[in-house]
Amino acid sequence: MHIATRVKRYLAAKGVSFQTLQIRRDVPFLAAIKQIGIQPQQLALPSMYRMNQQLLMVVRGADQVVSQTQLGKLLGHPVTPLTVSVVNKIFADCEPGATPALSEPYRLRCVIDSQLLCANKVYFVAGCSSFLIGVAVDEFKFLNPHALFVSFPDTAIEEEDQQQSSAANKPLISHTCCYSDASMSQGGNGLIDWPQQNELVAELLTEKSDDTAFVISQLKNAPGIKKHLIQYVSTLSRHSDVLGATEDFHDLETVIQSLTPRIAANLAIGILILQQLRTPLRGVVGKSAWWRVALYSSRLAQKIAAECDQLQDKQHTAHLLGLIHQMGILAIGHFYPPEFVLLNKMANANPREPVRNLASKLVRLGQANSVLRMGYPALGACLLLKWGWPSHLCESIGAHLQPVDVIKDDKMALLLSLVNCLLSEYQIGYRTTGASSEHYCKALTIPKQLVQQLANETLCEYQCLSQINHSLVA
Questions:
Q1: Cβ 127 vs Cβ 4: under 8 Å
Q2: Residue 435 · residue 421 · CB < 8 Å
Q3: How many domains does the chain have?
Q4: Could you give phi then psi for residue 160, rounded to 5 degrees?
Q5: Predicted TM-score of the model (pTM)
Q6: Looking at the structure, do residues 171 and 281 belong to the same domain, yes or no?
Q7: C-alpha–C-alpha distance, residues 159 and 164, integer Å
Q8: Most confident of 108-117, 172-181, 257-266
Q9: Which of 90, 162, 204, 321 could cross-link to 265 by cystine, CB 3.0-4.6 Å?
Q10: Residue 148: band (very low, low, confident or very high) from pLDDT cuts 50, 70, 90
Q11: How many other CB atoms sit within 10 Å of the CB of residue 433?
Q12: Which of 154, 176, 198 is the C-terminal boundary of a domain?
């Protein structure tokens, strides 16, 4: 089904000619449309709200952001986003997440971003996320005869809206990460059971985590985290020159000062996420193996960022994303334990096959189909978006296994891709990609020889990780 039944009948009744375009589903949505020559400002994205007990469709360009508060002020009435289940019932003839930017076939009130009228054509999903249809601007206006065309304010999203922002309003969620009602509603495997982000994580993500006193105050009442960090630093200091081997790491303040507050906060965030996701500990891609790879990745990402002119000011961000960028693997284990058990067996039997390829073979297993088809990087990005993490970080995580030409403008995604290539080349943990690191080195303008040297240093520094790994995640 390329076009929803109601949309198809409506287009036929109006006699409007349109163009049908197929897009790739194995790359981020916005990257996929750019590959076929469509600019974000030409793409109409609908969001659904309730206003005065009436249903309202708001259509904006993919490059336009409007907050719930701004929208309420613009319309003179407060608006409330509809839940995913309600939206799916309204658009029952559409694939979940592929809502058409047409209100008339569904008898809805409609507000449209007038900036969509600046281009010659408007494109929108019409029931299937693999296909777009394109119509002339005049035809788009003709298809929405009762719509109110408005100019959305070019202002930043207000602070309260950053916390309230619905996942359905974000392109990464509504198009790349769609899932069915069945997978949301049945049993413990449904994605309706999103785990809530730990409150301590939210505190450690703020800029205050640069302050030693603040980090100490946050972690001193988290005895599990404190114990893990002390053991982590003590073990590393005995096996490498990264930290002062003469230090006595028995108190939290010494640990945080030796690591730096931000790195200590990042590690605490990683441990808290591990504890929150109910994923099996053992196995090739179990929690224990995942955490070992995460620690290598974070240190290596930080080292490379320090040597890369384009990323020198983002070393702490590189460390954090290196630590948690593969959390989609843990999310599979959390949401779909049976499929995760099979993934572990497949990874054990096929050590040279990238985990992403193995995970794609799980797509046809029952209710996991609509979630797993988007891949574990996007699943991890979806979970972080649900927790309110900055969208640009989530996009880098969701795209980190894409080809260079797809993510060439996202330096952090390129860095994560490079780290994954090096981990696979050096056979550290499970294999994540079969791509070559050379292309990503060129994209980041960093010598491959230097990158290999940093990878060797990291490998030597972290040989002891297997000794502390189990206790960190148990």
A1: yes
A2: yes
A3: 2
A4: -65, -30
A5: 0.62
A6: no
A7: 9
A8: 257-266
A9: 204
A10: confident
A11: 20
A12: 176
3-state secondary structure of 22: strand
Q: Partners of 131 in the beta sheet?
A: 22
Going by the DSSP 8-state scheme, the letter that residue 98 receives in this structure is -
CA atoms within 13 A on the CB side of 428: 26
Distances (CA, A) of 412 to 288, 397, 402, 418: 25, 8, 12, 10
pLDDT in tens, 184-211: 333 333 444 567 788 899 899 988 889 9
* Domain's final residue, options 113, 143, 176: 176
Query: Domain residues for 111?
Result: 5-176
Residue 354: left if φ>0, alpha if ψ -120 to 50, beta else—which one?
beta
Assign residue 65 the CATH number of its domain: 3.90.960.10
CA angle 236, 240, 241 (to 5 degrees): 115
**157, 65 Cβ separation under 8 angstroms:** yes
Regarding predicted confidence, which is higher, 286 or 233? 286
Q: What is the DSSP secondary structure assignment for residue 279, as one 8-state letter?
A: -
Least confident of 96-110, 153-167, 321-335, 346-360: 153-167
CA end-to-end span of the chain: 46
Nearest-angstrom CA–CA distance, 452 and 313: 22
Residue linked to tokens 């309706």:
192
The residue with tokens 């209710």 is: 367
